[in-house]
User: What shape does this take?
Amino acid sequence: MFKGTIDENLNKQSIKGSEVKKLREKIIETYPSIEKYLEEIWPKDAKVLKSKIKVEDYLVQVYLIDDEIRFMENRDKIVIPTMRILHQYPFMMPHMQCDKGAIKHILSGSDVMCPGLTSPGGKMENLERYQVVAITAEGKVNAMGIGITVMSTEEIIKKNKDVAIELIQNLNDGLWKLTRPAATL
Assistant: This one.
């Protein structure tokens, strides 16, 4: 989704305390296992700003916490952590594992296809449609992407063709490069 370079000169805006509170509640509701760590990720006294990044033909809302992009909100209003947050808290969302053959495609920005999950190197959790998932690879420790399921696990197994997971962010994409620790936004 974040192919190419993203302009580091983001048009940042402050957000109201009530909006911050609602966003934190939405994160806890979406990722309940992260609740006890939310204060580490998003301290209550942190400076919170929002900005928009043009992606393909629409805008993605990003949230900067103490000048670091830590969450984004897609066009469907789903709040998604960045890859860096996922790597720090890998237990926060379900994982879907692709076979080794899918790695180069996902790292170049392709969605995850059903056969990459149903082949011998793939592993799936029992999930419904429209769930945020960490995309891992056979033989690798860290996630290589974050996506949203467009089919349930049952549908993926039954159909075994077409897109199973829409890729939101992957390692080394424009957002990954923009959120690198040394970046000053």
Observations:
- Helices lie at 17-30, 38-41, 83-88, 103-107, 114-118, 153-159, 174-178.
- The chain has two domains: 13-82, 90-170.
